[in-house]
């Protein structure tokens, strides 16, 4: 029984070490960006919608807000062109295993049919793959 408990503890510990959480300075920057996007009527959105982002991929207000965030973070242009060097640097900042960075970049930094959808799906991909570079409300 003790071996099972020890094995479970080790597995949990290794999982915790697999990713880094976002530094406080970056959290502060993301909070500021979020507040700037929320202050603009064109990019303001009900924060409850952002908490369930996966359910609102096609919502125009959510898309406008997420595009605002992605542009201000330097992840992409207003036209939807991804800036892979910036995205990679932020993935590297919060990923313990540097051998996974390029794979995560390739998996998440995908241009979709609209800039808004690209921004939304980038954040969803980060969350689904434990890339802790995002601002949670």
From TrEMBL:
It comes from the Eukaryota. GO terms for molecular function: odorant binding. Residues 1-18 form the signal peptide. Keywords: Signal. Pfam families: PBP_GOBP (PF01395). The keyword Glycoprotein does not apply. This is Uncharacterized protein. It comes from Exocentrus adspersus.
